[in-house]
Structure formats: C-alpha cells, structure tokens
Amino acid sequence: MSRNIRRQAGFTLLELLVVVAILAAIAGTATIALQDTDARASAAAHVAMMDEMNKAVRTYRVLNRNVYPNDYDALLQKADLATAAAANDFAGNGDPELTGFGILGFEDGLATITLTDDAAAGLNDIGITSLRYIQNDLDGDGGDTPLTCAAADLNDMINSRGNAVVAGNIFLSPAANGCGASVALFDEATETSTGQRVAVWTGGYERVLGGQGAEFDVTDPVTDGSTFTAGVEGAPVLMAVGMGPGSTLFNGGELGGLSSVPVYRHVAVDQYNRFIALFDIGAIGAGGAGYTANDQVALVAIVDGAGDTKEEELGEWDGTRNTI
After folding, report:
1. Burial 251-289 (b: 16+ CB within 10 A, else e)
2. Cα 150 from chain centroid (whole Å)
3. Contact between residue 53 and residue 277 where contact means Cβ atoms under 8 Å apart
4. What is the sign, positive or negative, of the torsion defined by CA atoms of 96, 102, 103, 108?
5. What radius of gyration do the chain's Cα atoms show?
6. In the chain, where are the structural domains located?
C-alpha cells in the first residue's frame, strides 16, 4: 500500500513535458499580445507631451504679455558663431539642406533660410531674440575626454563614455557639457537682422496645418540655403526650433516656466531627442521665390524628434502605424 502511495505522488516524464508545452504556449501568446507595448506606451506619452508643450508655450506667452519663450535650439551648427550665414547641417558638409541623419534622427523635412530684417524684427517683437547654435570649433572641458565639437566628431563625442555629453543637451554651452552658444538674431542698435540662418519646415503643410495647409502641398518648398527658390505663393514659412533645456520655457524662475524638459525616446542615443516647435514667421513670395515676414509670429504645431505630427504619433500608439 505504501509503495502505491509514493508512486502516485510523483509526475511522469510525459506529464512534465505536457506542462512545459502548455507554459510555452502561454508565454508565446503573451509575447504576441504584449509586443511593442513599451514603444506604444512611449508613443502615448509623446502625444501627451506634445499637447502639454503646445499649452505651455501659449500659457507662457499669456503670462508674459505676448512674449514667447526664448533661446530655443536652432537645429543648426556653425563653423564660427561670428559668421552670420555659415550654418550647416549636422553632417558638416556645407549642404544647406538638412538631408543627413546627423544627430537629428529624421532624414528630410527641414531646409534653411536667412532671416531678413523684417523677419528678425518680428521674432524680436515677440521675445524670440536669440537661438542656440552648435559651434563646430568650440572646445571645452568635458571630463576625461575634452569636448571636440568639430562636425565629424559630434556623434563620437556623444557616444563617448569619457564625457557627460548627451544628444539632447548638445546645444548647451561647454560648461554645461554641450557645444552650443546663444546667438542674437536682431541688432536693436541698427534695427537689422544679424543675418543668421534658421531651419524651416519642408515636410508638408497638410501634416501640420490640416486642411488649411492642403492647398500649399502642390509644390514642395525648396530653398538654396538662404531663401525660397520654389514653392506656392503665400504658403507659410514655418521656422523649426528644438525645445531644448537652454530655452527660457524650462527656467523654473520664469513666469510660466516648466520644471522639466520632455524627452523624445524613439531615436538613437546619439540623435537629438527633443521636440520641435514650428513658428509661422512669414509667407513665400510671388512666383514661389523669396519670402515676406508676417506682422505677427505664431506657434502652429509641435512635432516630435523624428518629424512626426501628433496624429502620426497617435497611430503608433493605437497600432495603426509601425512604431519607430
């Protein structure tokens, strides 16, 4: 009798194999059900951040009597901060079009133009008096490995464990583990532009303006680095700036300033991971060439660090669009 009881208390090899097979099937089903959960959760957070950033900028403007936050990231680098027009892409190849991945994380959708006197004055009037540029030849003490901000070294420097540089802070000064500096856009003494180049959105108007922008997508805007050479007459000129930690929007001492800087997480560690604000600063001129400044600058949209709109990021959240 006792031998029979002991025999019944154990499991046969076949029974164990069946249990293992069942557990494996359950694990496989759970894996399928939970795939991309982290990416979708990030996408949901990004959507909320884009809404909050939009509200924060507008609230800041109201609290500060029609003055926008200042010192955004220019998304451009310069060989010399004293040279007005020398603003290039992150590949450092002198191409005025931002077509290289560089540290930005999106392949196209931006170009550059030079601020005219009227455009710089319009920005100055609403409080955007300066932007932060990366200076190629700016070196500093970054820890065990000195900062070398030459264009060819940016990604290597960001990836290095010998300094405290991260992509999202690259526009801060060397003292703050960056390669950037604040550059004035308007000379109030002479009431003229300082001739700086700024990044402008060329990634499609309907994507950021809805139906209102559809009519402008007939011809993609093209620049020669300084001004528009092709486009739809009257189409808005949307200046693109990064919402990095150097902006007064994230100065807790400012009225309406936020205490933390949102991070966009669908890029590599050596790519710029902040959100992008688009400001309507003017309109493309007659025949699709040149541009004229607006009387009033306005914030029109927030896009993420990959150049995606809120609706596109929502598609990543609900699974109708592949996550990045």
Report:
1. beebebbbeebbbbbbbeebbbbbbbbbbbbbbbbeebe
2. 21
3. yes
4. positive
5. 25
6. 44-126+193-318
Can you give the pTM of this predicted structure? Answer: 0.82
pLDDT in tens, 46-71: 888 889 999 999 999 999 999 999 99
* Paired tokens of 61: 């403007």
pLDDT in tens, 144-186: 445 667 655 677 778 887 778 888 898 998 888 888 889 999 9
What does each C-alpha distance from 234 to 107, 228, 282, 286 come to in angstroms?
26, 12, 9, 8
Which pair of structure tokens corresponds to residue 101?
């991945």
Token representation of residue 238: 């949307």
Give the start-end residues of each E strand in the chain.
72-78, 87-88, 110-114, 130-135, 139-140, 147-148, 180-184, 186-187, 192-193, 197-201, 222-223, 228-230, 236-242, 276-284, 291-303
Token readout for 243 is 């919402």
Q: At what angle do helices 310-318 and 37-63 cross, to 10 degrees?
A: 150
